[in-house]
From TrEMBL:
InterPro entries recorded: ArsR-like_HTH, HTH_ArsR_DNA-bd_dom, HTH_MetalResp_TranReg, WH-like_DNA-bd_sf, WH_DNA-bd_sf
Species of origin: Zemynaea arenosa
Sequence ranges assigned to domain HTH arsR-type in this UniProt record: 1-89
Any single Pfam family the record assigns to this protein: HTH_5
Record keywords: DNA-binding, Transcription, Transcription regulation
PANTHER family listed in its UniProt record: TRANSCRIPTIONAL REGULATOR, ARSR FAMILY, TRANSCRIPTIONAL REPRESSOR SDPR
GO molecular function, one term: DNA binding
Membrane-spanning parts: none
Protein name: ArsR family transcriptional regulator
Length: 104
């Protein structure tokens, strides 16, 4: 299995879309497969990587596998992005100040 860190997991657009779908609530694997133009084994691999990265939880309900978002794993991404957010907030504040000075 490839590297299962959070950054690798969210680097793929299919996996990001799966996370977006699960943000709406838990879903069976079959329901997720229907959202994509790829086969069931491909989606299963994406779900496995998301599970190994700690981004989703899998629960068996009869013959179905239900997947649920586990958002706490995204804290690592949030912490990494925070300095960039601060940087851009400072830039926008400086732009706002400049524009306010030039406004009549």
């Amino acid at each position: 299995m490839p590297n299962t860190d959070v950054f690798t997991a969210i680097a793929n657009p299919v996996r990001r879309r799966i996370l977006e779908l699960l943000r709406e609530g838990p879903r069976p694997a079959g329901s997720l497969v229907e959202e994509f133009q790829v086969n069931r084994p491909a989606i299963s691999e994406h779900l496995q990587l998301l599970r190994l990265a700690g981004l989703v939880v899998e629960e068996a309900q009869g013959r179905q596998r239900i997947y649920r978002l586990k958002p706490g794993a995204l804290d690592e991404v949030t912490q990494w992005l925070h300095p960039f957010e601060t940087y851009w907030q400072q830039r926008f504040a400086a732009l706002r100040a400049t524009l306010d000075e030039e406004s009549p």
